Amino acid sequence: MERLQKIMGRAGIASRRKCEQLIIEGRVRLNGEIVRELGVKADASHDTIEVNGKRLNFEEEKVYLILNKPRGCLTSVSDQFGRPTVIDLIGEEEARLFPVGRLDQDTEGLLLVTNDGEFAFRLTHPKYKVPKTYFAEVRGFPQTNIINCLKTGIMLEEGLTAPAEVKVVERKEKSTVVEIIIREGRKRQIRRMFDKVGHPVIKLKRTALGPIKLKDLALGTYRLLAPFEVDMLKRATGLK
After folding, report:
1. Which residue from 80, 84, 82 is spatially nearest to 69, judged by alpha carbons?
2. CA–CA distance, 204 with 108 (Å, rounded to integer)
3. Among 42, 97, 164, 237, which is 20 to 30 Å from 124 by CA?
4. Most confident residue range from 1-5, 90-94, 118-122, 222-226
């Protein structure tokens, strides 16, 4: 027996958190009955589970993509205002794909896209501490004490950030390029951290997620992850 949202994620419906929202909204039926409680468990081999009136299918092939997201593109499946999304960049796919975590609209770089809900959940949950590497160009010249504050933690509205790895990469005429590695994923976290210390972000790019690096993948394009890359990510989250 497994929690319903975990079964849904494994079936490729969406990320674990999105599956929980579908349950709360009453869009999931278990053996014909609407479920609204997150603690309900089911047996995927015997129970009938329906989402939006469609029975779950566990035979769907898992797809794992790496995409170089451009600025101005939304990290979502669709947008009610017609703005471009990362799924628009991929085009028509047989599998139902969704982004793993989020990059805000003005951030570019590495984004994974999949239909494997459990895989996505583990990569984004802070429990698994998967490192995310960014290059941030910030205004001004952060001094050593500022860098040390970023390393030890910055107090944001919801609490202290976890320790980060931070190093100065380049000093320009009026700005500084900093590499920063975090192991959590709060909303707009890096931008908020640098705002807090008085060095607003000018440009932000994610260059790696766990052992997977963006390398020379062209902006706005994507490719399939190689099997060994998928295995590396699964090992990083305890799936293997």
Report:
1. 84
2. 7
3. 42
4. 222-226
Tokens 């040390």 correspond to what residue? 148
Residues near 203 by beta carbon (within 8 Å), at least 6 away in sequence = 136, 137
Contacts of 171 (CB under 8 A, 6+ apart): 141, 177
pLDDT in tens, 8-48: 887 878 887 889 999 999 999 999 999 999 989 998 878 88
List the catalytic residue out of 47, 88, 104, 195. Answer: 104
Whether residue 88 lies in the annotated active site: no
- Alpha-carbon distance values, 240 to 23, 210, 228 (Å): 28, 15, 12
**Contacting residues for 75 by C-beta, under 8 A, at least 6 apart:** 69, 85, 86, 99, 101, 102, 103, 104, 105, 111
pLDDT of residue 92: 57
202 and 178 Cβ atoms separated by less than 8 Å: no
